[in-house]
Amino acid sequence: SSLSIPSCRNRVERAINKIDGASARVNLRKKEAVVSLDRKIDDETLKNAVESAGYKAVSVKTREVDLEGG
User: pLDDT by residue for the chain (70 residues), tens digit each?
Assistant: First the structure.
């Protein structure tokens, strides 16, 4: 299936957003989901959510920024 149809994009976003602590935005042009996490979630959980929406997660890339002070 293609991520070019808004309903397909929404299906993937909803599947990821069901994970406690995850919030997703799917980019149709880039064929990627940008996921914000407020806790540690393993890659398999994210991949399983994408697959439950009928798509395959090809890779998961993570960037973490630790902040201190204020």
Answer: 556 678 889 999 999 999 999 999 998 778 899 999 999 999 999 999 999 999 999 999 887 677 777 6
Please report, for the chain, how many H helices and E strands are present, in that order. Answer: 2, 2
CA 16 – CA 38 distance, rounded (Å): 13
d(CA 11, CA 27): 13
Rounded CA separation 61/46 (Å): 11
**Whether the Cβ atoms of residue 10 and residue 53 lie closer than 8 Å to each other:** no
Q: How far apart are CA 10 and CA 8, in angstroms?
A: 5
14 close to 53: Cβ distance less than 8 angstroms: yes
